[in-house]
Design brief:
With 281 residues, the protein is mainly α. It is built from ten helices and two strands; from the N terminus they run αααααααααββα. Helix 1 runs antiparallel to helix 2, helix 2 packs parallel to helix 6 and helix 7 packs antiparallel against helix 8. About 2% of the residues have low confidence.
C-alpha cells in the first residue's frame, strides 16, 4: 500500500467517523428534547398506555434529525448521491426479497432467546420498552406500530448501512466493515439487554447489505423486523417469563427455512456479480 493510498483511506475513515458522530449527537439531543416536551404536555395524564406515544414523540425528531444529518453528509461528500448512500435495487428478485424478510424473523427470535438466557430480570429500560409495546391499544397502536417500524428503519439504516458500512467498506475488508458497523448499531441501543436482543439482527442486516449494497432492502428488512417485534409483544407471545410455544414453532418451521433460502440467494448473487455490489470509492 502506497503512502498516498494509506492517506486516502485514513481520510475516508476520518470523514466517516466525523459524519457519524455529528449525526448521532444531534439526533440524541433532539430526540431527548422531544421526549421531555411530550412528557410535560401529558402532565398528570401520563400512564403506561401513553408510553408508546411518548416513544413516538422521541423517535420522530431523533430519526428525522439522524436521517437529515446523513443525507446532508452524503450530499457534501459525493456528487453521485444515490451511489454514495447505496440507493440500489437488491437484484435478487421478489422471491429473494421475501426470503430475506422472513429469514430475519429467525434472527429476531434468536435475539429474544439471547435476552432471556443472559438476563434474569429486565432492566428498567427494557421493562419500559416491553410495557410500551404490550400496553399499546388499538386503534392508537397503529401509530406506535407505524412509528416503530418505519422511523428507525429509515434513520438507522441511513446511518449504519448507508453511511458507515458502505463507506467503511471502501477502506476496510467487507467483513471488518460488517462487524464494526453491527457492533456500533447494537451499542447505539444503549441498554445492555436491548443491545443483546438486537445483536443477531444487526449482523444479519449487515450481511444482507454486504451482499446486495441495497439500502432500500435493509430498510424494508428493518421495518419488517420491528413490526414483527411489536406484534409479537403486543399479542403476548413474548413475555418476561418466556416465549409462547407458537413463536418457537413459527421460528423453526417458517423463519429458519426462509433464512437458509435467503443465504443461498444472497451468496449466489454475490458470486454472480461481485463488481456490481462492490462499494464505490
Amino acid at each position: 500500500m502506497t503512502p498516498r493510498t494509506l492517506g486516502s483511506r485514513l481520510a475516508s475513515l476520518g470523514v466517516t467517523a466525523l459524519g457519524a458522530a455529528v449525526a448521532v449527537i444531534a439526533a440524541l439531543r433532539v430526540g431527548d428534547a422531544g421526549y421531555a416536551w411530550f412528557a410535560r404536555a401529558l402532565g398528570a395524564g401520563y400512564g403506561s398506555e401513553s408510553q408508546g406515544l411518548r416513544w413516538i414523540a422521541w423517535l420522530v425528531p431523533m430519526m428525522t434529525t439522524l436521517a437529515a444529518a446523513v443525507l446532508v453528509a452524503g450530499l457534501a461528500t459525493r456528487i453521485g448521491f444515490g451511489r454514495a448512500l447505496a440507493f440500489r435495487r437488491p437484484g435478487i428478485g421478489t422471491r429473494g426479497v421475501a426470503l430475506v424478510l422472513l429469514g430475519g424473523g429467525f434472527l429476531q427470535y434468536l435475539g429474544f432467546v439471547l435476552l432471556q438466557s443472559l438476563f434474569d430480570e429486565p432492566t428498567p429500560g427494557m421493562a419500559d420498552v416491553m410495557t410500551s409495546l404490550r400496553d399499546a391499544r388499538w386503534p392508537s397502536a397503529w401509530i406506535v406500530l407505524a412509528g416503530l417500524a418505519f422511523l428507525p428503519a429509515i434513520g438507522e439504516e441511513l446511518l449504519f448501512r448507508g453511511w458507515l458500512q458502505h463507506r467503511l467498506g471502501t477502506a476496510l475488508h467487507p467483513v471488518v466493515a460488517l462487524l464494526v458497523t453491527s457492533t456500533l448499531f447494537a451499542l447505539w441501543h444503549r441498554d445492555p439487554q436491548h443491545v443483546a436482543s438486537v445483536a443477531p439482527g444487526a449482523i444479519y442486516f449487515g450481511y444482507v447489505f454486504w451482499h446486495t449494497r441495497s439500502l432500500p432492502l435493509t430498510m424494508a428488512l428493518h421495518a419488517f423486523d420491528n413490526a414483527v417485534v411489536f406484534l409479537a409483544v403486543n399479542a403476548g407471545l413474548v413475555r418476561e417469563d418466556g416465549l409462547h410455544p407458537g413463536l418457537r414453532i413459527a421460528a423453526f418451521v417458517v423463519a429458519l427455512p426462509a433464512l437458509v433460502g435467503a443465504i443461498l440467494v444472497l451468496e449466489r448473487r454475490h458470486r454472480a456479480a461481485p463488481s456490481a455490489i462492490r462499494p464505490s470509492r
